[in-house]
Amino acid sequence: MIDFLRGQIALLETEYVVLDVHGIGYRVFCPNPYVYGTKKDEIVTIYIHHHVREDAILLFGFSTREEQKLFRKLIEVSGIGPRVALGILSGGSPDHVVAAIHQENISFLIKLPGIGKKTAQRMILDLKDKLDGMGAPSLFDEAPVLSDAQEGNSGWPEAREGLKALGYTDTELDRVWLRLKDSVGPDEAVDSVMKKALKLLYAG
């Protein structure tokens, strides 16, 4: 089984990258391929989950061991396949996902791509006692992972209204905020927040 690959980014797409490893191009599906957008001429390491099924051999890749480990835990949950697990990691950092499971924060989990209430409950039931040592323990004692205060202290609420006027749905905007919030400063201008959000929305 392949555990990691090291090479140069040869191609960047919305769902995957092609990694050139000594002249062989490996297609690797990633939670957010654009994290490699500034590293096209660099040697990068991508941690791999090598998934084999009857009709395909697929590579799923992660920028950290923590993401790789959480992905493998997620696909052990009934009803969560590799694509859904990848969507979960595209919508929330490992620290936040783990914290939400420990906190039994269903409202956070159902905002992740592909997760409904029953699946969120199953994630909590199956994984709460299996994630020891993962994530940041300090998160468990804080307010809910995606707090109203965190949204209100940035330009996001106003930017969100502007994006809704452009036709984006609440579901799309919730998912984008999960990916965006760590890069938005408390005093950041609304137009800057909108530009960042639109870049993620266009990327898919």
UniProtKB/TrEMBL annotation:
Residues of the Helix-hairpin-helix DNA-binding motif class domain = 72-91, 107-126
Q: Tell me the domain of life.
A: Bacteria
Gene Ontology biological process terms in this record: DNA recombination; DNA repair
Check the record and name the Pfam families matching this protein: HHH_5, RuvA_C, RuvA_N
Identify the InterPro entries for this entry.
Answer: DNA_helicase_Holl-junc_RuvA_I, Hlx-hairpin-Hlx_DNA-bd_motif, NA-bd_OB-fold, RuvA, RuvA_2-like, RuvA_C, RuvA_C_sf
The segments labelled Domain III in the record are: 158-204
Q: Single GO molecular-function term?
A: ATP binding
Domain remark from Swiss-Prot or TrEMBL:
Has three domains with a flexible linker between the domains II and III and assumes an 'L' shape. Domain III is highly mobile and contacts RuvB.
Question: Could you tell me which NCBIfam families the record lists for this protein?
Answer: ruvA
- Protein name, please? Holliday junction branch migration complex subunit RuvA
Task: Write down the species.
Answer: Fontibacillus panacisegetis
